[in-house]
Amino acid sequence: MGGLQKKKYERGSATNYITRNKARKKLQLSLADFRRLCILKGIYPHEPKHKKKVNKGSTAPRTFYLLKDIRFLLHEPIVRKFREYKVFVRKLRKAYGKAEWTAVERLRDNKPGYKLDHIIKERYPTFIDALRDIDDALSMCFLFSTFARTGKCHVQTITLCRRLTVEWMNYVVTSRSLRKVFISIKGIYYQAEVLGQLITWLVPYQFAHDHPTDVDYRVMATFTEMYTTLFGFINFRLYQTLNLVYPPKLDSKAESELKAEHEEDYAMDSESYLEKLSALSASLARVVATAEEEEENQLDQFPADGEDLENMEAREKEQKEQEAQNRLFEGLKFFLNREVPRESLAFILRCFGAEVSWDKSLCIGGTYNVTDETITHQIVDRPDIDKQYINRYYIQPQWVFDSVNAKMRLPVEDYFLGVTLPPHLSPFVEEKDGDYVPPEKLKLMALQRGEKHVQEEEEDDDDDDDDEEYNDEVDDEDLTEEKNLKKMEDQRSQGKTLAVKVTPGKVKPWETGSVGNKVRLEKEEKAEEKRLAIMMMKKKEKYLYDKIMFGKKRTTREANKLAAKRKAHEDTSKAEKKQKKAKKQ
Amino acid sequence: MRTVNLESQKNGTMSKAKEKSAKKRVVEEDDDQLPIFDKDVTEKKAGEEDDADLSDSEESVFSGLEDSESDSHDEEEDAEEGDDEEDDDDAVILDEILTKSSGVETATEPPATDKNTPTQPDVKTAPKRKMKKGEGVAMDDGGEKGLITTRHGDEYEHDTSDEEDIRNTVGNIPMEWYQDYPHIGYNLDGKKIFKPIRNKDELDEFLDKMENPDYWRTVHDKTTASDIRLSDEQVDLVHRLQKGQFGDVNFNEYEPSVDFFTNEVMIHPVTNRPQDKRSFIPSLIEKEKVSKLVHAIKMGWIKPRKPKETTPQYYDLWAKEDPNAILGRHKMHVPAPKMRLPGHEESYNPPPEYLLTEEERMAWEQQDAEDRKLPFLPQKHSCLRAVPAFSRFIHERFERCLDLYLCPRQRKMRVNVNPEDLIPKLPKPKDLQPFPTTMSLVYIGHSSLVRSISASPTGQWLVSGSDDCTVRFWEVNTGRCMKTLEVGGAVKSVAWNPNPAVCLVAVCFESTVLLLNPGLGDRLVVSSTDQLITSYEPPEEDKEQAVTWALSEGPEHDNGHRLTLTHPKAVKQVVWHGKGDYLASVMPDNSSNLQVLIHQVSKRRTQNPFRKNKGLVQCVSFHPLRPYFFVATQRYVRVYNLIKQELTKKLMTNCKWISSMAIHPGGDNLICGSYDCRLAWFDLDLSTKPYKMLRHHKKALRGVAYHKHYPLFASGADDGSVIICHGMVYNDLLQNPLIVPVKVLKGHQITHDLGVLDVTFHPTQPWVFSSGADATIRLFT
Known about the structure:
The complex is a heterodimer.
Chain A lengths: L12 H4 E3 H8 L3 H11 L9 H4 L9 E3 H8 L2 H21 L3 H9 L7 H7 L3 H6 L1 H12 L9 H21 L2 E6 L3 E8 L2 E8 L12 H25 L10 H11 L6 H11 L11 H6 L12 H18 L6 E4 L5 H10 L3 E4 L18 E3 L13 E3 L2 H9 L32 H10 L5 H8 L5 H30 L17 H22 L3 H46 L1
Parallel strand pairs in A: 6-7, 6-8, 8-9
Antiparallel strand pairs in A: 1-2, 3-4, 4-5
Chain B lengths: L1 H32 L4 H13 L6 H7 L3 H15 L4 H23 L1 H7 L8 H13 L3 H10 L32 E4 L5 E3 L7 H10 L6 E4 L4 E4 L2 H11 L41 H16 L58 H9 L26 H14 L12 H4 L16 E6 L5 E6 L5 E6 L3 E6 L5 E6 L4 E6 L8 E5 L2 E5 L6 H12 L13 E4 L2 H6 L1 E6 L6 E4 L5 E5 L9 E5 L4 E3 L11 E4 L5 E5 L3 E6 L4 E7 L5 E6 L5 E6 L4 E5 L8 E3 L6 E6 L5 E6 L3 E8 L9 E9 L9 E6 L6 E5 L3 E5 L1
Antiparallel strand pairs in B: 1-2, 3-4, 5-33, 6-7, 7-8, 8-9, 10-11, 11-12, 12-14, 13-14, 15-16, 16-17, 17-18, 19-20, 20-21, 21-22, 23-24, 24-25, 25-26, 27-28, 28-29, 29-30, 31-32, 32-33
Helix pairs in contact in B: 1-8, 3-4, 5-7, 5-8
InterPro entries (chain B): BOP1/Erb1, BOP1_N_dom, WD40/YVTN_repeat-like_dom_sf, WD40_repeat_CS, WD40_repeat_dom_sf, WD40_rpt
GO cellular component, one term (chain B): preribosome, large subunit precursor
Pfam family, one (chain B): WD40
């Protein structure tokens, strides 16, 4: 045979991976520095395909990095900066110990710093790459901007985060790219479409944070450091695409208006400017004043090569819809009461072309007063309000969110003051076949299709109607409801036939006819055929098939459960209503 | 007037000088303690040296206290400098010193003073000497200090080596050394100083002590060997020193402190020293340094420090973006998945069905955080104003951060297949007809489980053997039991002779194989069979055989018994060869090679084909066309060539325990049923491994069978079902057999965990018989 004996683990996947400790030793970094480097450079462990091979036969749980990644880190200039910083800290400590204050000051002045520009460029070679990855950056910056300016992290970071988020919001307002919003119990989700990328972020409610003790803020700070750099560059580029001045400036007209009013309220000019920007009430200055023209500009449509006419038409239609959504609130004048979350509502409303104002004492930048006669909607989040103007709607904030998600102005009646609000649905859920669709969503879809939902309106009148009518109504509703349910269940059971055993069928009344019988027989035959075919599946495929079917079964089970719950709820609520009515009489 | 002035002044200076000396001493003491001020001290000393006769202004700068006075004193002295009364001054001073110290000295050494006084040039040394003397006896502060003031700058004044008594020049040595000499030392002139003539002895001493009233104040001076009587002042001094008081009576240690640097602004400067010239002209050294810096700045060696930029600068980072500039590592890059988007249940006002019920909430709370399906509790708030902060917000963001940098990533291919696509596309069973589809007849009669069935080659009759020790013959079409035969034990196996010209049934129970002639069907055939058996002629030489062949007679013959083969061990299975002359019986036994016997009915001969035991034999079978013999042991099927008497093939079934076996009528395919729910189809031309493994039964397979003419095979299992499969074998060798399950037949009840025990096909029709543990036989057509 000849040749050297091949040793184990000297080639193949064992040499492509490196454990974390070894990587750390290779880079000669402390764990903290290594962590920071990994965060900044976006290096993460990989799960090897054959863990035991990589782990040299051992099954101990280890995290593995790609050796290539670690080699790639070796030449990172920032590693040197880390070392410099370490030396700096040592020197500073020494100087402190010796009470050499001049030395301390000198060292402080020469504190080594580093920039992450090159890392950003390296991690995201193209702008779209960067944009794709901005979700986390946005959420993090929005979180940090709500931190109190004490402890936990540097004040500069907080102000920077605030500045960047304000810039982002201004960009979204100007580009009108907001698509969906959702009030969750965690915070408010926003989804925008920027340059074809769907970007979702979460903004916490404006409360002071109860800082947890089991969270390592250094990790978060490192991430934020990276994110702010990335975010700043993205903002710059985005502003450039819209011909906006960066750092953002208010329109000269708007600026002068604002200046006249509120100049004396704020101590620092820079601070007040940021406040004005964050008020989101004024448009931004542009490099070239071509705002109107741009909007008029219509792009010609050319069918792409592989596209047929239908496809193109669909696209066109979609685009039109999109445009309509962008003008959703155009021409409306809103006034925000002080108890509603001003920033989010102002942001959303401005994104869809509405005019917004608020009380002068609430925030800078309000453009008109409550007394303005031209206000069409006032957003109020309290059960009742003393002084009401007759020519405007008083609505709850959920109307805005629901309207945005429905891409249409929903009837305001459901959202009046003191009215029990309809459920707020998540716009991010896309129901597939067999999934549970809440009835509200069905209603909404009907509304979107342009069907006038008669029942709903009648329901509103319900309370005033007499009992009999009400009962009829209820029955009607019941019937339709049941039909719906049945239909859904039928659909589901069709999908489920595989799992169900074929039992000798009972003769059902509607199947007595020969036609029905035939159909049934055919069905059974098919089911049997399938069952027999399943017998012939290979072991591997059978396993997979069983798994898929198990998952399907679970979803249908869950959907059924939800439907049953809903039905039970409705029954109880109806019973309660009836009782109430009975009591009244 | 003037002299008086002078005198008083001198007195003043004297007293001042005293104080000053005290100060100086203090200062010198300070010297030791505070080395920091070294420089100043040396300066001071230098100053003292420089202008010895000059005032102590320099000193006073540091000692500070009596400056104003000393200043005036300086001026006056300066003024007097020019006068020729200098000598007088000195003289006066001397006088004073003398008068002062005389009190002390007169008693001890009057001649010395006398000697010194007249000589003017000696003035300086004399008082010094005198002073030393005083010191040696008892320090007269006043005198000494006076000297110091006048003889300013003589730092050797205090040198300890000078303090020794210079009347005796032997130095500081133990005086005992001179004990034996008449002298005690030498005077300045080198003459011997003799001891006093008579030394005092003890008695003298005592007398002296008793008589001399001044004894207590008398001290003995060893150097001069003389007694000295201390004066009153000296005694007083000693007392004071003993008490730890100052030696000088006049010294007031509690003088009121004079705040020198007061807050009050004085009209005069503290020192009147004129400013140096260097304080008015620019420094050359500084100029040089500055010009160096200026030059360095001009040359660009030094850069002025820029104010640090705190706000980051942003620019168009992707101005020159190159989509191809993707690093190598990005090939392996696995982008982090985005956060999951929220569903309806996360809404602040979800539809009611998404809220958890009380039980669900309890269950949620009891679950571990990892097991929870939802990481939060859905909640409903009546209005937006009522929504509280989410307490785990920072946690969730942090966990996301951890996931981003700590979680190992792996690209997983999500199987995005339609489950329908996984199901193999098979021909429709409808197109594969005929095959049995419905149960049409049930043969009832047995009282215990029916182990084995077999159909006659004509397809008119069916024989079944049961555990109730009977063999029953049935008419297939009517389900009638034609005949019931009692045998001596539970029937394990029955087999109808496949030769249509012979009407013979082999039945095995316990260790017996019985050949029966049921007498059914064609009489001609029946009689010819009987004839065949009776026509046997025993051979000339009778060989020893493993079994005994016995011809039945009498009532047994009437019952149909024809031949009885008594085996040495329990027989499990009997199988006919296709021609109907040979018969194989299986006696499973793990310990011997006598497990399979092949009998030839026409010659009543038996032979054991195997010399070796290859494992527990489960069943055997003859090849339908060729002289091959199949033996199934627990896990393997061995194929023997009977003519060549060798093993041709060993089939690996991959089963744990084979239960049954059937050979395709073509002879090239074989199926094996096993107790571990598998059915293996072997293509003997293809491989020794199964061509297809079917796992369609839920429980152990008990019987398998091929149809003689139709491409069908059946398998019966303990789950009570018989599965009919279409198993098409093509003549074309390149085409693999097509196997399609076509029907699941149910009907047998499961009793004692046993379902179907045997299946067999009708020889001509696509019908299948199955016998079960429920004591029935069923016919599916």
